[in-house]
């Protein structure tokens, strides 16, 4: 499930307290993390956007940290999040996922569980020869399924419906060897709060989330272009970014608070290690403005490949044959 910065001036709800990077773990809805294999291309479970495929996987934990800023520019709270997500294939092209996260902050101290998010993701098209894939998903975050409203960091009292489109393209079909290890992925999501106005009169905005990653797979290079040093051959260095823009139902700007119509986001380098049964990834996040954070944050993930670890039991689809695997 992946990080999407959310403006800090969204009204007096949980989103006013959780840092950009923690909110990034739920682009209006907590998304599924999973690695995707298309032909001989492995798309890792990147930390800012979801990868474009469906698999049987368990992401545990997904950690993030981001220091926030106050509207006057002074240092704000230190914000942390520890999340999890389980994705289960129904068929080789259809999967259901569920997850949430525990958030805490210091200066001032607060903590609480986010609401539970479920997602149904479908892959209508993929081309193994050209290492290309597209998927669509619908996610729903259930109100009041996290910490109660009496908690220091309560869950949101409203549900959210999210529509997502994901895509990925590897360049192994290009003639030039130096391009072959490169790949790109992208995501576009629209988030609709099911309750427009909170009990205190604040508004819950409709937002769009969009992001991309540029990957250089030493794993792919070692298998299909040139041999890499053993220490590096399972690594996928990446540059990634994610942004969220409020587009509707915005509260009026208030003195001493962040504007409600500001795009927030993070960009930064990351690296992923792909093992046979797991993936480990880390990322340094740079906020794009003070609404997103005060300075660099970090994210990390451990993703367990259940489809490789237990392909004949919990790692296979409920119906039909499993996905074909490339020679990665």
Count structural domains.
1
Mean pLDDT: 89
Low-confidence stretches: 1-12, 15-30
CATH top level class name: Mainly Beta
Percentage of residues in DSSP E strands: over 45%
Query: What is the count of helical runs?
Result: 3
Helix content: under 10%
CATH topology: Porin
Secondary-structure-based class equals mainly beta
Strand arrangement across the biggest beta sheet:
3-4-5-7-8-9-10-11-12-13-14-15
3D shape: globular
Quaternary organisation: single chain
Which architecture does the CATH hierarchy give at level 2? Beta Barrel
Please provide the count of β strands.
Answer: 15
SSE topology string? HEEEEEEEEEEEHEEEEH
Radius of gyration in whole Å, from Cα? 19 Å
| Largest sheet entry | 12 strands, antiparallel, barrel
Description:
- This protein is mainly beta and 328 residues long.
- It has one domain: Porin, CATH 2.40.160.
- The chain is built from 3 helices and 15 strands.
- A hairpin with a 2-residue loop joins β1 (36-38) and β2 (41-43).
- The longest helix has 7 residues, at 218-224.
Produce a short descriptive summary.
The protein is mainly beta and 328 residues long.
List keywords for this structure.
328 residues; mainly beta; Porin; twelve-stranded antiparallel β-barrel; two-stranded antiparallel sheet; 15 strands; 5% helix; globular; disordered N terminus
SSE inventory with pairings:
Elements: H1 20-24, E1 36-38, E2 41-43, E3 57-69, E4 75-91, E5 94-106, E6 110-113, E7 117-127, E8 132-141, E9 160-170, E10 182-193, E11 206-216, H2 218-224, E12 235-248, E13 264-274, E14 278-287, E15 297-305, H3 306-309
Antiparallel strand pairs: 1-2, 3-4, 3-15, 4-5, 5-6, 5-7, 7-8, 8-9, 9-10, 10-11, 11-12, 12-13, 13-14, 14-15
């Amino acid at each position: 499930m992946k990080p999407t910065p959310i403006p800090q001036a969204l009204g007096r709800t949980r989103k006013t307290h959780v840092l950009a990077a923690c909110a990034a773990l739920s682009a209006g809805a907590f998304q599924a993390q999973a690695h995707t294999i298309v032909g001989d291309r492995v798309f890792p479970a990147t930390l800012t956007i979801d990868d474009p495929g469906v698999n049987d996987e368990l992401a545990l934990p997904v950690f993030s940290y981001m220091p926030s800023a106050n509207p006057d520019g002074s240092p704000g709270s230190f914000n942390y999040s520890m999340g999890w997500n389980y994705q289960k294939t129904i068929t080789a092209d259809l999967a259901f996922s569920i997850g949430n996260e525990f958030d805490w902050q210091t200066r001032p101290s607060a903590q609480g569980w986010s609401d539970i998010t479920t997602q149904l993701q479908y892959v209508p098209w993929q081309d193994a020869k050209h290492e290309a894939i597209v998927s669509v998903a619908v996610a729903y975050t259930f109100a009041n399924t996290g910490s109660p409203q009496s908690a220091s960091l309560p869950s949101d009292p409203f549900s959210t419906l999210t529509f997502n489109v994901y895509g990925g393209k590897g360049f192994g079909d290009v003639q030039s060897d130096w391009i072959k290890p490169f790949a790109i992925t992208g995501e576009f999501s629209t988030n609709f709060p099911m309750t427009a106005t909170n009990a205190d009169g604040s508004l819950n905005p409709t937002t769009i989330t969009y992001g991309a990653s540029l990957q250089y797979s030493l794993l792919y290079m070692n298998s299909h272009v040139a041999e890499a040093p053993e220490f590096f051959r399972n690594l996928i260095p990446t540059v990634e970014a994610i942004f969220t823009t409020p587009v509707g139902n915005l509260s009026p700007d208030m003195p001493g608070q962040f504007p409600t119509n500001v795009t927030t986001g993070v960009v930064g380098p990351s690296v992923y290690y792909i093992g046979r049964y797991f993936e480990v990834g880390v990322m340094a996040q740079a906020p794009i403005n003070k609404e997103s954070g005060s300075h660099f944050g970090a994210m990390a993930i451990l993703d367990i490949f259940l489809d490789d670890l237990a392909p004949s039991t919990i790692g296979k689809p409920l119906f039909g044959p499993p996905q074909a695997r490339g020679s990665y």
